[in-house]
Amino acid sequence: MQKIPKDLIIAIDGFSSSGKSTIAKDIAKTMCYKYLDTGSMYRALTYKILKNNINIQDPTAIKQMLDDTKIDFQLIEGKNHILLDGVSVEDKIRGLEVANFVSEVSTIAQIRTFLVKLQQEIGKKGNIVMDGRDIGTVVFPNADVKFFISASLETRAKRRYKELKAKSIDNNVNLLLEEVEANLKKRDKIDSERAHSPLKVADDAILVDTEKFTKEEQLDFVIKKIIEHTHS
Q: What is the pTM for the complete model shown?
């Protein structure tokens, strides 16, 4: 294998539970890059909104919340945690309550502007893999390499269902697969149709269908594409 390049910005976009985070983490580990899960940033703000019963229709309330919000990341016991106002909320943002509301929160222009600025500041030095829904189109339209990750709704629902059932969150023991699929379908529609930076495939993105590859094959494919792109 050719020498893995440094100082790149690698953008990975895709629908929820398509497998983009798995691929992003694997790329970051292989290339010794930083990994940024931008979706967790939207989840953290959603959690704060729900916890404090903030009216998302009130621009003043949203501004006050954002002015008083600090988001950071920290490695805790080998796992990447998102810190909201200095406290890890990693285990609090992965349940269905947040998932059911995060796409709606993500449509708010004030919130997207706030987080995009933060993401750009974190990623501008390169050596980073960022995953989300607008990384290659809005956050870093000039990213060195872009991927768009896909999988069918049925496959994504099964993956998400299995993940949620494995966690003791939101009474997941009683969760139905149909609920998870309905949630994903709703989020897909909101993410794709929102007015502010909708989810779409960047013109120069490399498409990766995670249903056609094993995990090992996915990693081999994307690393090969990164090396090909940077040596072309």
A: 0.89
